[in-house]
Structure formats: C-alpha cells, structure tokens
User: Fold Cell division protein FtsB from Pedobacter ginsenosidimutans.
Amino acid sequence: MKKFFQQYYNNLFLSDRLFAALGLCIVLFLLKFFFAWLGDIPEIATGAVFVLFFIDIFILYRNTQGIDAKRITSKRLSNGDENPIQIEIKNRYGFGVNARVIDEVPFQFQLRDKDFKLHLKSAEVKSIHYNLRPTKRGEYDFGFIRAYISSPLGLINRRYNFDGARILPVFPSFINLGQYELMAASRYLTEFGIKKIRKVGQSSEFDQIKNYVGGDDIRTINWKATARKGGLMVNTYTDEKSQNIYCVIDKSRVMRMPFEGLSLLDYAINATVALSKVAMLKEDKAGLITISENIGAVVPADRKASQLGSIMNVLYKEKTRYLESNLEALYSAVRSVVKQRGLLVFFTNFESLSALQRQLPYLKRIAKYHLLVVVFFENTELKELSTAPAKDVEGIYHKTIAEKFIYEKKLMVKELNKHGILAILTPPQKLTVNVINQYLALKAQQRI
Assistant:
C-alpha cells in the first residue's frame, strides 16, 4: 500500500473538470432545500461523479507505462546561437489522451514557458521542437521531462516523470562554422558579408598559366605563352601557405561589457574559432594566446585535424578577469612562442585614447616582428545616442559626450595606423565577418 501511494498517489492531480462537477453537486444539494422535487438527484449526481472518478483512475493507472518521452539534443550547445531541442512523446494507451509537457530547462535561461499542450491518439508519436540560445559558456543542467496526462473523462491528471537529466557543455559558437568552411574559397562569400579581394602581388610559387582578364597584373604576362597562343596569357601563383595565425584574446575587465546577452569576451572567442577554421582551410597554422594580468592559455600554431578542437576546449573555460592586461608579459610570450613572422589578431577594447597610449609602446614592439591587427569595439549604444535627436539641454549634453567618445575611437584607429599597426573598429555583431574579411584581404595582398 505504501508503495502504491509513493508510486501513484504522489503523481495524481485533480483537474478543474472534477472540481466543477463537485461544485455542481454542492449547488444541487443547496437547491434541494428549496425544491423538494429534486429528490435523490443530488445524491445520484454525486455518486456518478465518484464512480467516474474511480473509473478515470483505473484507466489511467492500469497501464504501468502509458506514455514514453525523451529529449533529443546535440552533445554540446553553441554559445550565442539558436540550438534546436526536440522532445519525442509516444502514447501507449488504447485511447486518445491530452498531454501537458513541461521541460525543465537549465536555470541559466530563466525560462518558465517551456510548457506544451497536445493531443495524442492511441499509439501516436509526436515531436515538440523549440530553440534555446545560451549566452554564457559552461555546463548547463537539464532536469526532468514532466508529462501530465488526462483521459477523455478528464477528471484527473497522471504525471509521468522522465529522467531527462543531462549536463550539456556550452562551447564557443560552432553552428555556423560549416558555412564559413563551405564559403571561404567560394565567390559567394559576399552573401555572408565576406568580401573576396583581388590579389595585387604575387608569391614565389608558380601555379598555372591562364588567359588574361581585366584587373590581372600586367607584370605577370607570360610573353612566350602569349606569342604561341595568339592572345594575352598571364602566370598565376599560389598563396603562401603554413603561415602562423595567432589569435590573442584580452581577458581583462574591458572585455566584460555585455551586448545582446553576450560579453565582448564571448564575441572575441566566437570570432577566434571562426577565424581559426578559415585559416586552416587556407592551409595556414592557427594558434591561440590569452592574456590578462598574466599569460593565460597558449596553444602553439598548427593545422592538424585536432587543432580546432584543442582551441575550443581551451576557450570553453576562459573567463574575464578584473585587472588590466599586462602587455609586457604578452610581448615576452610572443617572442618566446612565435618564432617566425606571422599574423597576430589582438582582440581587446579601448574606451579612451589614454588607455591606448598606455599600451601603445608594447604594441609597437610586437609589430616590429609580426603583422599585428588590433581589434576593438564600437559602443553601439553611444552611436544610437549620438544619432537620436536631442529634446532638451540635457539631451544635447549627452549627445555631445557620445559624439566625443565616438570621435576618440576613430582617433585610436589613426594612431595605430600611424605606427604601422592595422586596426579594426567594429560593432560586436559584425566582429566575425570583419575579422575574416581582414584576413582574406591580407592573404590576397600577400602580406602574410
């Protein structure tokens, strides 16, 4: 008996229909005091409700496992992307049932609306689809799948608890990597905002002779082949390969700023994964360095098959710190780790010109030995504030200050360029595309 109560009674819930029926019975008993002709009708109605109540219990509980449900997900979730989640539910009863399915999603999402209602015919299988968008890396703990089942009588609900408990890691964004892999060598890159740049130089590795087309460098004309063919022919050369491409990620407090749910650090991490993928597709070597008050993780550049997985496993655990970055330590690490000249893409953020000037001596020293690209972020809220019309004196003041900060960001770009350092000033949502554009442009110009 105790087992029955633990297994069945704890999962039995009375429905609104039952309370409505009992309320009607109570009304009939009250009316009987005024209308004697009702006779035994209240007692008969009450008895019928209880009979139907026990019949409902019997038909729902006679089948030990009347419902099956399971959650179908990938082995890991992609940070900042819409991840598909599927719940498959099957009716094993010999009659149709109404189901209310609640999925206990991880607390990080703060969602209470993953509540689905559906009708299942006998032996019918249905799927529930929805998406989750995580905004932080780490472990996400899914709970139970709870299904509340009612028969056609609808007087009670039987709850089924399916152990869907599962811990899924949230990795840096990887869902769109396939698009970059497919499009990196394609002329359709512009559909994703990625431009393909015509080469203006040449490498020393000969590829083939082809017909001249407008825009080809006339210095590459092959006069002997032209004489034989009777039309202009040019030599083409292959890209330089196996170059060192290092992404350097600043983990200091300047990267804590949020934008659309993700921190600037998360945007930098997602861009690093995408750039590393494209670089290895171009047969370059991808590496990683993280920096805060001390040197963090270092992944030496390589283009082996497991390199991207190694980079993602390191970035999965990275968090922002509260101190300022030590670029002197970064310079020492770059000199000791990166033995050959390569491309260093430094993801950071400068909110003032004075902050840049404090770090500029170290950036100039790094740029002596490597091609350095400094990536920092536009403050999109300030940009919106500067374009909005001012309604009063206070609004004019705020707009003026916003325009001052925006202008100072542009001065930072010029200051870096003046010292031979490339700079990318970008909104967070366009970071990945802009960084890949810059890499492809540098490859096309034979600068790496």
